[in-house]
């Protein structure tokens, strides 16, 4: 508590200064504000944040929230997928960049702002719905960053997939962090806090109905070059037998801070097939919490990340096996160059009832430079005996024999290294179940690898 | 372990003559009141006739201990400890049973299975009137000890109690005490630094290979080693020593809190092998009683090409909190950790290791086997850290857990931190239960269920058991079977 107070914390100040909102979730906001005040901005003394330091974020000067006009076009970094697009700019819906008029059958999309404001003191069915679907911290314990989102959230999406709907066309959710108060040309402005930062609190609430199948692609990108902070929360529920394919790409600008908490509840026989590709941001932490509530539910949370410069890339996962015969798979691969740091924390909890659980974790990291660092904490907490659980973690440089093989065939060292790195990473993308997204992610990764200095000549 | 009836009788008589009288008065005189404060720390130091620097060191530790919070990150539930309700010096023996007839028959049964001679059983069970310098006498080792002492002295090896070493080798003690585990390390180590009463000291001179396994079991100066034991082992350049700690037989002990500190220092080309079998009283089936075993063990591979190897078989104690670690400072140094931990009934164990790679080409290997049964909870907690200068460091970690029954827990919490691209780290862990196929195979061949489980578990642990010195390995195997009794069927 005292820690939280003594440390510089722009969000405590912002909470004090904020105007009270009398919208549908006012009481929820109060509780969330309280939760954040109690905990404060996490420091490395908090076990869950042991490896990721938000000190830089605390030093950013935030501009008072102003509505940014939506840009005319999206940046190139957005994943190139054929899909129905829904865009949030700094956490607010951008109708001009969203295909709200051509939603596939079985898909209902509402703006969170509409739902929240419809209430405005009067009692309204939609408003009730919103407060029931949002929670203070999305079920995370000790989660000040999720609570901060709840305290400040203005807009976002409420998406419902009808029972039994087989949605062919994927939805593509674009989360754009825009700030052109910085210099328009520079993009290595990681520590350049000349322009004031823009904070946004995007939110997604997604219900996938019984036996429904859907693919939802996400792109988290930036524009403008100024420092940004996106603190997002996604609450996703999969009903019985539902299948959600959920490839997520984080490709924010170099001056961006990106924190996103995704909470999943997965009912009997449902399958979550998620992939997280992290390519950008100065500091990015994506946290996934999956609760397997029904028998035979499955959570696949795979991913890949790439760090260079002084980036910090954090993937923190928690899978709660709360029913028998549930399955979880977590495979992550990372490449770290420069003085970047990769963090992988995964915890698998198997409750006494969850007999016949099958849970596997794997993390592989390639360290390319002397200053790079990887921190892994693959954790198992098991209370049932008839289970097959394992985890593995490796860290090392490129295989010298493989490098020698390529060089012996006349391939220059830099090219050979690039080939091996690409092979290491691309392999993991095969876990993406949707072909269009897989291709788009592959391209984004290749483009990013090509930009990495020192690897490719 | 084999003692003839004759020996036993002899020893029995010897014991009576020697210890019946005078024993209690001795204790009376040396006893300090319950509780701990600065005065007690000073008195302990004074009684040991310690030099000023050591007294000061103890006092500094004590001052810090008062401020230090209890560690709370471990996954065990520790009931609050009343530090003022403990004797810190020469705790008088609680009223023990008058004869073996009064001892819990279950414990006797265990002794029998381990093949422990009757007289030793009395000692272990704390029967009144049983010889105090237990193991020495029972093992007929009065002569043995003397022989050993002579051999060791010839080689220049120092093996004595730490209090004696403070007097005889103050320069070594001053140089190394607290250099691996500073008193500020953690609350339990800090308390130990303030109030430690005894423990072992070993110094192996350069180039000497210690000709025998050193052991607290045979310790020449086997005084009452209290609950705050302090061990310091220094292997000078090019030397080798293997040290055994503990005992396979279950020991009754009235004191609940054991906070020991073990420091190992290996200089250039030296090797230390430290093996522990820990079987303190684990409490009864309902978790009543039992020892809290809070141990800080750490070895520093200071020299080039040095090696420290920890092997532990942990079956006892109600709560185990223990992380034997290696600091790999010297280039090409090697750290090893082999562990078998068995928890049954309501035992809790949070144990593991730390491997800190500092020097170039340092290598470490961690093999941990955890077996959890009954309502027990067990955690492997490990850290592998590679610092930027540790070029070519290498680690291999394997931690496997076996669950027996649906009411126990097994957890794995590894931290893997690498800051050097040339370091290669591998970590793997599995959790499973005894396969029904294996069990069926044994049962169909007429092996009883409990024996079959013991057999399978021994197979599961064999990588670790192989690293134990011979005399320990045989007993430890039996111990595994006994520890798991009542966990099946």
- Overall mean pLDDT of chain B stands at 80
| Unreliable sequence segments of chain B | 10-29, 91-96, 130-144, 218-225
Largest sheet of chain B: 11 strands, mixed
Helical content of chain B stands at 25-40%
The low-confidence runs of chain A, each spanning 5 or more residues with pLDDT under 50, are 1-5, 119-124, 183-193
Distance between the termini of chain A: 50 Å
Distance between the termini of chain B: 32 Å
Strand order of the largest sheet of chain A: 2-1-5-8-10-12-14-16-18-20
Q: Which structural class matches the secondary elements of chain B?
A: alpha/beta
Distinct helical segment count of chain A: 10
Give the domain tally of chain A.
2
Overall geometry of chain A comes to globular
- Write down how many β-strands of chain B occur, each being a DSSP E stretch of 2 or more residues: 19
Commentary on this structure:
The complex is a heterodimer of chains A (457) and B (489). In chain A, 22% of the residues lie in helices and 36% in strands. Chain A is an alpha/beta fold and 457 residues long. Chain A has a ten-stranded mixed β-sheet with strand order 2-1-5-8-10-12-14-16-18-20, covered by helices on one side. In chain A, strands 3, 4, 6, 7, 9, 11, 13, 15, 17 and 19 form a ten-stranded mixed β-sheet that branches. In chain A, a hairpin with a 2-residue loop joins strand 1 (84-89) and strand 2 (92-93). In chain A, helix 3 runs antiparallel to helix 7 (144-152). The longest helix of chain A has 17 residues, at 413-429. Chain A is globular and about 70 Å long. The model of chain A is unreliable at 1-5, 119-124 and 183-193 (pLDDT under 50). Chain B has 489 residues and is an alpha/beta fold. Chain B has a domain at 141-436. Chain B is built from 15 helices and 19 strands. Chain B has helices at residues 5-19, 23-30, 38-47, 52-67, 105-114, 118-124, 134-138, 141-155, 162-168, 170-176, 187-195, 436-444, 449-460, 462-465, 470-483; strands spanning 158-161, 200-204, 214-215, 230-235, 240-246, 257-258, 261-266, 271-278, 292-301, 307-314, 319-322, 325-328, 334-343, 348-357, 363-373, 377-386, 394-404, 409-418, 424-433. In chain B, the strands form two sheets. In chain B, strands 1, 2, 4, 6, 7, 9, 11, 12, 14, 16 and 18 form an eleven-stranded mixed β-sheet that branches. Chain B has an eight-stranded parallel β-sheet with strand order 3-5-8-10-13-15-17-19. The relative contact order of chain B is 0.09. The A-B interface holds A 47, 51, 352, 355, 365, 367-397 and B 73, 388, 401, 403-433. Strand 20 (388-396) of chain A pairs antiparallel with strand 19 of chain B, so a sheet runs across the interface. Chain A: Belongs to the iron-sulfur cluster assembly SufBD family. Chain A: This is Fe-S cluster assembly protein SufD. Chain A: It comes from Marivibrio halodurans.
């Amino acid at each position: 508590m005292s820690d939280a107070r003594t440390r510089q914390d722009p969000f405590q100040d912002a909470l004090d200064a904020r105007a009270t909102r009398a919208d549908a979730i006012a009481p929820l906001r109060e509780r969330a504000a309280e939760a954040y005040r109690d905990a404060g901005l996490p420091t490395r003394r908090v076990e869950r944040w042991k490896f990721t330091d938000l000190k830089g974020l605390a030093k950013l000067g935030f501009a008072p929230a102003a509505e940014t006009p939506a840009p005319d076009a999206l940046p190139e970094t957005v994943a190139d997928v054929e899909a129905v697009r829904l865009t949030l700019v700094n956490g607010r819906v951008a109708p001009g960049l969203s295909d709200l008029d051509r939603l596939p059958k079985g898909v209902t999309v509402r703006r969170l702002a509409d739902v929240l404001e419809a209430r405005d003191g009067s009692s309204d069915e939609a408003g009730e719905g919103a407060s029931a679907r949002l929670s203070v911290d999305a079920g995370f314990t000790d989660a000040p960053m999720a609570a901060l989102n709840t305290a400040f959230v203005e807009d976002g999406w409420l998406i419902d997939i009808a029972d039994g709907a087989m949605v062919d066309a994927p939805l593509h959710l674009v989360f754009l962090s825009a700030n052109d108060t910085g210099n328009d040309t520079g993009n290595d402005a990681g520590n350049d806090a000349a322009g004031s930062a823009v904070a946004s609190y995007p939110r997604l609430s997604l219900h996938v109905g019984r036996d429904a199948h859907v693919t939802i692609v996400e792109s988290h990108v930036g524009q403008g070059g100024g420092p940004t902070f996106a603190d997002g929360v996604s609450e996703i529920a999969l009903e019985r037998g539902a299948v959600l394919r959920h490839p997520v790409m984080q490709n924010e600008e170099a001056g961006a801070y990106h924190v996103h908490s995704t909470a999943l509840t997965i009912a009997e026989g449902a399958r979550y097939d998620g992939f997280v590709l992290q390519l950008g941001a100065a500091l990015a932490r994506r946290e996934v919490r999956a609760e397997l509530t029904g028998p035979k539910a499955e959570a696949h949370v795979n991913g890949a990340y790439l760090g260079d410069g002084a980036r910090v890339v954090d993937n923190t996962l928690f899978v709660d096996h709360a029913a028998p015969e549930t399955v979880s798979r977590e495979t992550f691969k990372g490449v770290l160059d420069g003085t970047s740091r990769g963090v992988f924390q995964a915890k698998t909890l198997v409750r006494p009832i969850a007999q016949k659980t099958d849970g596997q974790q794997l993390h592989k990291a390639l360290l390319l430079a002397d200053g790079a660092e990887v921190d892994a904490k693959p954790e198992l907490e098991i209370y049932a005996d008839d289970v097959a659980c394992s985890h593995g973690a490796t860290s090392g440089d490129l295989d010298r024999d493989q490098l020698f093989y390529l060089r012996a065939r006349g391939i220059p060292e830099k090219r050979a290294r690039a080939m091996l790195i690409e092979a290491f990473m691309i392999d993991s993308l095969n876990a993406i179940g949707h072909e269009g997204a897989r291709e788009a992610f592959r391209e984004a990764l290749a483009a990013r690898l090509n930009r990495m200095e020192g690897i490719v000549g | 372990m084999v003692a003839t009836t004759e020996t036993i009788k002899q020893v029995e008589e010897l014991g009576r003559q020697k210890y019946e009288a005078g024993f209690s008065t001795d204790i009376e005189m040396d006893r300090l009141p319950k509780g701990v404060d600065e005065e007690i720390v000073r008195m302990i130091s004074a009684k040991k006739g310690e030099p000023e620097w050591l007294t000061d060191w103890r006092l500094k530790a004590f001052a810090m201990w008062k401020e230090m919070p209890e560690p709370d990150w471990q996954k065990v539930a520790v009931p609050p400890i009343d530090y003022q309700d403990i004797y810190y010096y020469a705790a008088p023996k609680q009223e023990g049973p008058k004869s073996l007839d009064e001892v819990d028959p279950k414990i006797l049964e265990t002794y029998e299975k381990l093949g422990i001679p009757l007289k030793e059983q009395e000692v272990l069970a704390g029967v009144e009137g049983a010889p105090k310098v237990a193991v020495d006498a029972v093992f007929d080792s009065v002569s043995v000890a003397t022989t050993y002492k002579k051999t060791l002295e010839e080689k220049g090896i120092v093996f004595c109690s730490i209090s004696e070493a403070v007097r005889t080798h103050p320069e070594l003690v001053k140089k190394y005490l607290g250099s691996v585990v500073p008193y500020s390390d953690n609350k339990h180590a800090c308390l130990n630094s303030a109030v430690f009463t005894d423990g072992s000291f070993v110094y192996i001179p350069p180039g000497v290979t210690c000709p025998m396994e050193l052991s607290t079991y045979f310790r020449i100066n086997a005084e009452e080693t209290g609950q705050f034991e302090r061990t310091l082992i220094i292997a000078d350049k090019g030397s080798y020593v293997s040290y055994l700690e503990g005992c396979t037989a279950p020991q009754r002990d009235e004191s609940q809190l054991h906070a020991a500190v073990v420091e190992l220092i290996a200089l250039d080309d030296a090797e230390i092998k430290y093996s522990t079998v820990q079987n303190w009283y684990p409490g009864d089936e309902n978790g009543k009683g039992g020892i809290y075993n809070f141990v800080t063990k750490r070895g520093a591979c200071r020299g080039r090409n040095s090696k420290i190897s920890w092997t532990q078989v942990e079956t006892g104690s109600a709560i185990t909190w223990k992380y034997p670690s290696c600091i790999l400072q010297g280039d090409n140094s090697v750290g090893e950790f082999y562990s078998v931990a068995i928890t049954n009934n309501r035992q809790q164990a949070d144990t593991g290791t730390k491997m800190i790679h500092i020097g170039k080409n340092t290598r470490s290997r961690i093999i941990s086997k955890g077996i959890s049964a009954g309502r027990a909870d067990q955690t492997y907690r490990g850290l592998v850290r590679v610092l930027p200068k540790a070029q070519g460091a290498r680690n291999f970690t394997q931690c496997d857990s076996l669950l027996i029954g649906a009411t126990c827990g097994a957890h794995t919490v590894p931290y893997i931190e690498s800051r050097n691209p040339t370091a290669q780290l591998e970590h793997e862990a599995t959790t499973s239960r005894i396969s029904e196929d294996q069990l069926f195979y044994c049962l169909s061949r007429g092996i009883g269920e409990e024996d079959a489980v013991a057999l399978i578990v021994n197979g599961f642990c064999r990588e670790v058991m192989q690293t134990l010195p011979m005399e320990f390995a045989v007993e430890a195997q039996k111990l595994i079977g006994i520890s798991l009794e009542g966990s099946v069927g």
